[in-house]
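Per your request, structure below.
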């Protein structure tokens, strides 16, 4: 077997809830000022699941759909792992539940298990899979990375930043989306910005302001390290900073934070431009104004934020806005969020590979607590390979429009039902199975020993 080259993402499958609540209606229902969720946070719709769906069912759905769409047999997969922060059975992994799709085909030689750290677990799982394909453990089969979460918050200011979904990524050599080597930049730290200490509840404990500060500081650190590593690898490259990317996708708690993040990168570029003449040329309007600022004092500095938001607006519209469709329409999916950004970017090409061929995509992944990474993806120039990836995602936009809108009143009742029943036994969920998309797995029953059984809506 030859050494695998161009290791990366061969295929992607996405599932999101069939139900959504409209954020304008939620603003009215919650009694907040009009525009707070839609303009202030940049969110239009929020997907959510009834008690019929849990993390196991979401992941069963996405894996079974990927295998079918890509015409794969269970024996074609040699590694399968899950990144999630939606924990049900604590010691028992979601991966072990997914074995239900493999065991009946005699496939039990399947490496990989669950990885957890808030919204970062999916990226850790992706790196494990990439490393496996590039390692001496690789046996020629493909890897599957599954990211899934149900993001629900208690009533209050964080609730409109919820969402849910799952993404499965097929990993192997000769991929249309290749993960660049030698530039992955990591920033990890101990912080209590968002965590789930109450094991009886699906709701996190959140320090909203701290979580934003942690996110932005992780971005600063990852970006600067990426920048250093990139320069080390390409000492003669004259394109540094934002210019080196054709697109940037981010973990998206809510869309407005991502626009601020792009502005943050342009602030970093400004500070990294130490040559005075160059700075004057690139930033004529304010090259002297921010000469002495310290990054860590600017997280909530309105003046700095406004100037760099304005300065980077065109770049944001061109390089990042196309990646926000799913985040805006479904909300924060936690681990899949950053990969929903990648899917949104891919489907923004409307099947036209020439819009993506040869492009360089920057990726920022963040999980509270905290773990973060910036890495990059090179898109192949092989149009046929890319076309098949894009064709396999053509269902996403039409499916978004096939969802059912639920009133904020009913949404709140369904959230209460979910919260009330999340750890019940001898329990059959009450959520309406007929509203689920065909091919969706759902929770049938939880018995007296907390054992869960699932069925599929055909
Ligand atoms: N029209 C337009 N904009 C408005 C309006 C209005 N009527 N009302 C408020 N806004 C703006 C505010 O000015 C603010 O904008 P800014 O961010 O530029 O200052 C924005 O809307 C949000 O309003 P806030 O009052 O700041 O919101 P609040 O503090 O109530 O909650 C928060 C926001 C902290 C993000 C909350 O939703 C939360 O805790 N979410 C979960 C944590 C989270 O997502 N953290 C991000 C990283 S960690 C992770 O991924 C889980």
């Amino acid at each position: 077997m030859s050494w695998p080259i161009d290791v990366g993402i061969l295929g992607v499958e996405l599932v999101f809830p069939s139900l959504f609540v409209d954020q304008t209606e939620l603003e009215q229902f919650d009694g907040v000022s009009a525009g707070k969720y839609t303009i202030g946070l940049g969110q239009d719709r929020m997907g959510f699941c009834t008690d019929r769906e849990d993390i196991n069912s979401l992941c069963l759905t996405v894996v079974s759909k990927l295998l079918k769409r890509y015409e794969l047999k269970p024996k074609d997969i040699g590694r399968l792992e899950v990144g999630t922060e939606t924990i049900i059975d604590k010691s028992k992994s979601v991966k072990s539940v997914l074995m239900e799709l493999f065991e009946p085909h005699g496939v039990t030689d399947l490496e990989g298990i669950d990885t957890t750290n808030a919204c970062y677990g999916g990226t850790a799982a992706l790196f494990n899979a990439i490393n496996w394909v590039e390692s001496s453990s690789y046996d020629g089969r493909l890897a599957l990375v599954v990211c899934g979460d149900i993001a629900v918050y208690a009533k209050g200011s964080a609730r409109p930043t919820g969402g849910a979904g799952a993404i499965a990524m097929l990993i192997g050599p000769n991929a249309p989306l290749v993960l660049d080597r030698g530039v992955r930049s990591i920033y990890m730290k101990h912080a209590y910005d968002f965590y789930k200490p109450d094991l009886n509840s699906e709701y996190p404990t959140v320090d909203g302001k701290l979580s934003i500060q942690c996110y932005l500081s992780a971005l600063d650190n990852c970006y600067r390290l990426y920048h250093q590593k990139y320069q080390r690898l390409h000492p003669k490259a004259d394109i540094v900073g934002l210019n080196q990317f054709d697109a940037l996708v981010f973990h998206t708690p809510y869309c407005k934070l991502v626009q601020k993040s792009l502005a943050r990168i342009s602030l970093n570029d400004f500070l990294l431009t130490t040559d005075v003449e160059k700075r004057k040329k690139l930033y004529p309007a304010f090259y002297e104004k921010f000469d002495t600022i310290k990054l860590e004092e600017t997280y909530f500095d309105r003046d700095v934020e406004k100037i760099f938001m304005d300065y980077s607006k065109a770049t944001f519209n061109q390089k990042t806005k196309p990646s926000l469709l799913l985040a805006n329409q479904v909300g924060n999916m936690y681990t899949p969020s950053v990969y929903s950004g990648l899917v949104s970017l891919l489907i923004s090409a409307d099947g036209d590979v020439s819009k993506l061929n040869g492009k360089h995509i920057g990726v920022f992944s963040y999980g509270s607590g905290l773990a973060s990474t910036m890495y990059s993806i090179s898109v192949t120039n092989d149009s046929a390979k890319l076309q098949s990836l894009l064709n396999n995602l053509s269902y996403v936009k039409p499916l978004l429009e096939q969802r059912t809108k639920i009133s904020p009143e009913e949404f709140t009742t369904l959230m209460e039902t979910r919260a009330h029943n999340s750890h019940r036994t001898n329990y059959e969920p009450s959520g309406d199975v007929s509203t689920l998309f065909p091919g969706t797995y759902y929770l049938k029953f939880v018995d007296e020993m907390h054992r869960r059984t699932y069925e599929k809506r055909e």
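The chain has 15 helices and 17 strands.

Regards,
D.
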